[in-house]
Amino acid sequence: MEALKALAFSGSLKKDSFNKKALKVAVETAKKYGAEVKEVDLAELNLPIYNQDLENPFPEQVKILRNMAEWADVFIISSPEHNHSISAGLKNAIDWLSRKHDETIKGKGAVILGVSTGNSGTLRGQAHLRQILEALDMFIVPQPEVLITNGAQKFDDKGNLTDEKSIAIIDALVKKTFDQFTKIKQ
Ligand SMILES: Cc1cc2nc3c(=O)[nH]c(=O)nc-3n(C[C@H](O)[C@H](O)[C@H](O)COP(=O)(O)O)c2cc1C
After folding, report:
1. Residue in 77, 116, 147 to alter for ligand 1 test, most ligand atoms within 8 A of Cβ
2. Is residue 15 exposed (0-12), middle (13-18) or buried (19+ Cβ within 10 Å)?
3. Residue 137, Cβ neighbours under 10 Å: how many?
4. What is the pLDDT of residues 74-132, one digit of tens each?
5. Radius of gyration (C-alpha) of the chain in whole angstroms
6. Closest residue CA from atom 17 of ligand 1
7. How many Å apart are CA 113 and CA 94, to the nearest integer?
8. Global pTM?
């Protein structure tokens, strides 16, 4: 069987982002389970703010993201929680992808995770992300949820996630998503 293709991106645009660091773990895990992974940095891509007047044709940066999304079977998204929801940067990217979403999103799978510096571990943000992606007909396993709390204490000076429980739950989520998504696709 062909390898699953995964597109990984962080909802945090910040350079020294905890979510970018957690995303690295999910990317390595996806590769371990045989996926081909492409990563895109939304800060580098610098998408314009979504505006329906700019859709015909899509701006060049949007085309790059949409082409990558079309290529992928699965998205891997690590996002912070901003004001009890997802980051504006992530919502903006999804809004661009949601146009003609049968090309970019529909029927694909998603692995979602998040790190916060507080106690919520992005619980509320992830609930919103799940709602948005499911509305666009994405497949997301109900459990496990990767909610990394107190992020400042879970990474070492080199940016490596050191919390064994979080590493194990990322592994379980990626494996379960890949297993179930592969079955759906067969
Ligand atoms: C604009 C803004 C809003 C935030 N809102 C929340 C929030 O609602 N819940 C939460 O747990 N943390 C919140 N935080 C704190 C984030 O958890 C923290 O900044 C974390 O480092 C974000 O992840 P990142 O390092 O990947 O950007 C907020 C931070 C910012 C900058």
Report:
1. 116
2. exposed
3. 12
4. 999 999 999 999 999 999 999 999 999 999 999 999 999 999 999 999 999 999 999 99
5. 15
6. 116
7. 16
8. 0.98
Cβ pair 85, 74 in contact under 8 A: no
DSSP 2: P
* DSSP, residue by residue, 59-88: PHHHHHHHHHHHH-SEEEEE--EETTEE-H
Which atom of ligand 1 is found nearest the CA of 78? 26
Domains of the chain: 5-185 (3.40.50.360)
Q: Is the CB of 17 under 6 A from ligand 1?
A: yes
List the one residue out of 78, 96, 75, 76 whose CA is nearest residue 86: 78
